[in-house]
Specification:
heterodimer, A: alpha/beta, Rossmann fold, 2 domains, seven-stranded mixed beta sheet, five-stranded mixed beta sheet, 10 helices, 21% strand, B: alpha/beta, Aldehyde Dehydrogenase, Chain A, domain 1, Aldehyde Dehydrogenase, Chain A, domain 2, 15 helices, 18 strands, 39% helix, globular
Chain lengths: 359, 482
Amino acid sequence: MTEARLVEELLAFIAAGEADEEAFNRMALAVFAHQFETNAPYRRFATQRARTLRTVKSWRDVPAVPISAFKDLTLSGRPPEECPHVFMTSGTTKGVRGKSHHPTLAVYDRSMTVNFRRRFMAGYDRLRMGILFPTEQAMPNSSLAHYLALAKSEFGTAESRYFVSDAGLDVDGAIEALSRAEATGEPYALLGASFSVVHLMDALAERGRSFALPAGSRILDTGGFKGQSREMAAEEFYGRLSATFGVPRRLCINMYGMTELSTQFYDDGNEVCPSVKSGPHWIRSRVINPLTGQEVPRGSVGVLVHHDLAHFNCASAILTEDAGVEVDGGFQLLGRADGADAKGCSMAVEDFLKAARAT
Amino acid sequence: MERAGHLPGLSADAVDWRTLTFRRGAETLDVAVPVLSEAQIAELATRVRTNARTYLRSRTVAEIAATIDRAVARLLDRDDPWRRKAERLLPLVTGYDAEMVRLGLTGYLKTFRGPELRKFVAEDFANPAVLDDFQPMPKGGFARAFGPELLLHVWAGNVPGLPLWSLISGLLVKAGTVGKLPSAEPLFAGWFAQILAEIDPELADCIAIVWWKGGDAAAERAWLTRADTVVAYGGNDALEAIRARVPITTRFLPYGHKISFGMVARSALDAGKAGAVARQAAYDVARYDQQGCYSPQTVFVERGGRVSPREFAGYLAHELDALGSKFPRRPLSMGEAGSVASWRNAEETKGFADPTRALLGDPAGSWAVAYTDAADGLSPCGLNRTVTVVAVDRLAEAVPGLAPHRAFLQTVGIAAPPEELFALAGALGAVGVTRLCALGRMTAPEAGWHHDGRFNLLDLVTMTEIEGSAERAADIFAPYTD
């Protein structure tokens, strides 16, 4: 199947609105075949695990690429120089940045907009938005910058604006926008990186400011804190979010996305933490034991594997370093499965790299 | 329910207790750890300080060592109830294989018998009597060494018994001792204090074994501001947080996480010796599942012997497999499994670009050996019995690459002929390695070991000197003066 044909089929698959096991399987095998045929490093990876076009019979058989491999391998069906869009990880943990190449953003953008409308917009066509993250121009390789730019252009009103620039966080601008929303009663949406939201809350607290945003207002945060700001437990974070902006916790929505995916997961608010995350019909997740690759019994903690059909040019099945547990309606994220809980005094990889970078 | 800690003078009913639950297979153990109020902390600190001043200071080092020796003897006696309890509960709490814990305890405790304790003291003090009384000094005058009145240990980690090292060091310099239990193994230190209480209750009143939740700023501050000296173990982030709360006038002795490795010279690689060398290296890797700072994470193997580095990696894999049956690895948490998996994944991925790399061991197995021909240098593995064999033309070539990691280097387990041993030791010491030992002994430092190259006892004391002038001046004021 040509790439153009595959893109067409994927857009139709997304448009179909739902997919049963069989339909998902069919599409997944077509995407796997495309990746196996066009992407030599992926083919080597799959073959080494004895997963080939002949042996892979179900989407569950498609070998999942560990996200660390995006740093060492060029996982792209099209030659990288032909891909105008490259999203890179922030490189927070290993220093080297993982890359996802996109020959077109048609599927990425469709995946984002269809899902965002359903999970965040709740019937609104457009909302006035405040974005707590740099623009796409400032961060051309950030998938999150692109995601937020898309949210603003497709779902934001003309008055929507960014509150983060080279000059840092525009606290005054944010206060003005929030006050205006309070005064006019027009629902407002605040979207951004979790750590920027923390910075804004800290700045507002310093000035003794809090808001009661109008009914229908909502907040989207994403990304966790990654050492950019002090760690806050989810419970404390959403409690504070709700108190600062006057938005009920069920409308404080967390998006879980990755550079190595073209689709995002959302929860239905954070009244209870950890919340339940789920994605649309073109992405499926499994919870596995990272050593055996076997699925863990339902309800047990394991590491998340995501199978995102929209990530067609790279590797649609990825093995994350996120711990999670399968529950009714989706999965719960339980932090990172990276040995941060190591018990001994033996130096672990993360510390070693951190120290090596510091010197 | 097992009650942890040792709180002289505080009744158990007056204290809040928090339960830590440990599971191993179908067995569970609840451990109650004390949560002290600020007032209780103040009371305990004062009591330990006062008792140390009046009782410990009045004892000689020899008397204190004799008491410790008796306590250690009980823990070495397999029929003693304390020993039986340790053998039963420590595997449950730490997850380590029971036989490994039993052998480990015996090997470790042996280094604290009476004669070994004398080595401890002699390592740091040419004249141990300086801890008991003023002693004449070569430069003239007299000097006496005083330990801190209140020494706080912040312990970490789950290697059974590890707190004993600094606890005993403190007692040997007559320090009033407060130890913070590690949540991962909250029992052993308290037991030791209780055994001491059965032998010498007054001495045990100079020790408090406490607990607070890691990061509990209020409790931590309350203790840190009351201590004269603080010894702390943990990762650098944890140590930095502690240091930020230690008053500038308090001596702070941090012991951070370290990385250790093995070195095998070509002369150790003939057909007759290589097997034994691999067995010893495998033992160092398997013992306490590489949780110790002295556990090897990489083994540099020299080319040019009868057995090639690649073959040695195979030997090592074979020995790890055998040890896996004898001392099964403890069940891993999901985080630990994730850490092993990402190390394996990274090794596999590198193998695509470099076919000389190899990864031995089944993903679901309890060990893995990576092999590389590349001049890769030192890198941490995934822990829990995972190790990288790096082939080098000459062992000395591996040394310059270690220099950037100076602050983290600790033990080198080495198999090399005498001349090379000393030549390498010079180079390794210069880049920051503080301990060289035989392979197979990496996880069992000898008595009196200078932990991370420091002086276990000397670092704790201050010297009080009577200068010659005072002595001479005193003469003038003597009643017998003319």
